[in-house]
Amino acid sequence: MSTTEFTGSKQLSKSKPKSEGSKKVENSAPGVSTVSVHAGEARQKSLNSITDPIVMASTFTFENTQSIIDFIENKEERGEYGRYGVPGERVVERKLAALEGAEAAVLFSSGMAALVGLFNAKLSAGDEVIFFDECYHRSREYCRKHLSRFGIVTREVKTGDYDAMESAITSNTKMLVSESPTNPHLSILDLDRFATIGKKHNVETLIDATLATSYNLQPIEFGVDYVMHSATKYYGGHNDLLAGVVLGSAEQLQPVLELRGVMGSVNTPHNCYLLERGLKTFELRMKRHNENGQAVAQYLESHPTVSRVLYPGLESHPYHEIAKQTMRGFGGLITFEVADADWKATAKVVDAAKLARIAPSLGGVETLIEQPLVMSYWGYTPEDRASFGITDNMVRLACGIENSSDIIADLEQALAVLK
Ligand SMILES: *Cc1c(COP(=O)(O)O)cnc(C)c1O
Fold it and tell me: Strand (E) positions, 84-194?
């Protein structure tokens, strides 16, 4: 098979972010869609197929003993056994690395499997990890509840409090972790500052950039060591698969790759194909998610029955300035509060949605709506919910790629139930 033709995309510049629709040609590197369609793929594929065949094999045959020895001695790149990787997986990894501007990517069977794989490969008994507290609750739960059993200490500091994060570093600290944007508050990190703290103390840094994707934000440009995405969301894009990825330097990711082969948290060939196919339209979908997010957020902000809207593209958002400086767009996720509503009145609005479907998740073509108090925090005490910043009248809307006028019309009729 011939080598791939497209290896890199035009990177977002950390000093000069390109707004959408910018006409300026900065370099001759291929654009995002060219990369997402072509990168990582062989030009001429098996059986002359234009698409990558789905190779449904758990094991790969050797012609003879010499070919096994050649493979072990790295003289031939080929498959061995499914747990160590399938052909479609490598294609998707190269594609995602090209989109991120990262040297390497390791694909996992879910976003959580990616986080677990990275933490397990990098942390040992006695090590400490520090989180910004708005990070995905399952990743904090994994560290607090499970890594603690193996002698790893988890600390949490308030999101955006860089001095607190720096003060929490000890000689045992091995990783600083945050999400950006966070969920559901959509706080945006000053990645320069975050990465600088890590470098100053010789501690590795990880950003979960699921809500942004490489289209809107590229943390590696700022000096962050690892970027993680739940590819279940915008990368897969169609609410039909689970996958996750960790990106960074090949050297730093080598132990992660090796551990994945032992843990077995790998994707099936069919899942890899679905992800590869979803990625073909990545830029088209992201543009629409960004447009819909902005249009719907502006509509909600002007609505008399909505008391608060959190969306980084709104001037009212506490992190709007840093978002504008570092991101290309702000995605499809919006959090808003229904005016003068208790949790039951808020649930009425959610239940009245006709186009938006009631479900957790985000990043797919379908618009999803949910009430965080019910979907993610049911059974928590009011004090605990308050400490997470989860209010009774909060609604999370993940705009899909439908026409924004239809999403807005749906919200208009849903909010009207309270009149
Ligand atoms: C969904 C999500 C995850 C977990 O990903 P899965 O693919 O569901 O395992 C992690 N971080 C963020 C920000 C997410 O939205």
Answer: 104-108, 128-132, 153-157, 173-179
pLDDT digit string (tens) for 176-232? 999 999 999 999 999 999 999 999 999 999 999 999 999 999 999 999 999 999 999
134 lines ligand 1 (CB under 6 A): no
Atom of ligand 1 nearest to the CA of 233: 1
Q: Does ligand 1 lie within 6 Å of residue 210's CB atom?
A: yes
Q: Under CATH, which number does the domain 26-55+86-279 receive? A: 3.40.640.10
338, β-bridge pairs: 306
b/e for 6-33, b at 16 or more Cβ within 10 A?
A: beebbbbebeebeeeeeeeeeeeebebb
pLDDT digits (tens, 9 = 90+) for 70-110: 999 999 888 999 999 899 999 999 999 999 999 999 999 99
Q: Ligand 1 center to residue 112 CA distance, Å?
A: 6
154 in helix, strand or coil? strand
CATH architecture entry for 282-418: Alpha-Beta Complex (3.90)
CA angle 211, 388, 412 (to 5 degrees): 60
CA-to-CA distance for 204 and 182, rounded, in angstroms? 20
- For 361, other C-beta atoms within 10 Å of its C-beta total 14
- How far is it, in rounded angstroms, from Cα 99 to Cα 35? 7
User: Could you tell me the distance, in angstroms and rounded to a whole number, from the CA of residue 28 to the centre of ligand 1?
Assistant: 34
- The token duo for 340 is 């003068």
Residue (of 294, 326, 288) closest to 311 by Cα position: 294
> Cβ distance 39 to 6 under 8 Å?
yes
Question: What is the Å distance from ligand 1's center to 190 Cα?
Answer: 21
Domain extents in the chain: 26-55+86-279, 282-418
Measured from the Cα of 244, ligand 1's closest atom is: 7
Residue 255, preceding peptide bond in cis (omega within 30° of 0): no
Q: Ligand 1 test: best mutation among 137, 233, 239, most atoms within 8 Å of CB?
A: 233
Q: Whose CA is nearest to atom 1 of ligand 1?
A: 230
